[in-house]
Amino acid sequence: MKHIAIVEDEEMVAAELSAMLQKEGYQVTCIEDFSRVTEEVLAILPDLLLLDINLPEKSGFVICREIKNRSSVPVLILTSRDQLKDEIAALELGADEFITKPYRKERLLLRIANVLKRYEGRNNMLEGPGFLLDRGTYTLFIDGTSVLLPKNQGRILETLLLDFGTVVPKEKLCEAVWGTSEFIDENALQVNLTRLKKTMTSLPMKIAITSERGVGYRLEEKP
Amino acid sequence: MKHIAIVEDEEMVAAELSAMLQKEGYQVTCIEDFSRVTEEVLAILPDLLLLDINLPEKSGFVICREIKNRSSVPVLILTSRDQLKDEIAALELGADEFITKPYRKERLLLRIANVLKRYEGRNNMLEGPGFLLDRGTYTLFIDGTSVLLPKNQGRILETLLLDFGTVVPKEKLCEAVWGTSEFIDENALQVNLTRLKKTMTSLPMKIAITSERGVGYRLEEKP
DNA sequence: AAAATCCTTACACGCACTGTAAGTGGTCTT
DNA sequence: AAGACCACTTACAGTGCGTGTAAGGATTTT
Question: Which chain B positions have a beta carbon within 8 Å of A120's beta carbon?
Answer without folding.
Answer: 132, 141
